[in-house]
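Exercise 7 asks you to align residues with tokens for two separate proteins.
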Amino acid sequence: MADQTRIIQIDGMTCGGCVASVYAATSEIDGLDTMTVDLADNQATVTFDDSMTSAEAIASAIDDAGFDATVASS
């Protein structure tokens, strides 16, 4: 279908290791095209194929890694 770009707020990141954990937690998600994690702003910008995954599924994977992730309203 179409690529979507969304922002996910991530609470609980304190260092570069946390950023690496977020990347690792989402590395196996089919349909996730790109992700940029910004430690200073506590957020990730994700671009994904909405026929394969959703921003909510990506946020859930980040939650499962021990962070509090929520999809920002568009």
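Second protein for Exercise 7:
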Amino acid sequence: MLELATIFIPTMLQEITHGIKKLELDARNVRQVVDELEKAYPGIQERLLDADEIREGLAVVVDGDVSVMGMLTKVGEQSEVHFVPAIGGGG
């Protein structure tokens, strides 16, 4: 049986997903997650990406780790993926 990654939709994007807060997708990396989200909810990609990369001010967290690989970050069959506002460092 295929295990799917769980994708958590941030509050700011739930208007696009019609209130859906999480869903399961078959994806092997963040790019595939975004592609599948766009198929299901047209318009969400432009809110997540800028020039085919994760939008500035947004971070992707996969299994509790903030992604440093961006769209290439691997997503496992039981991964949890969150799109969250990025937290900047101190000055």
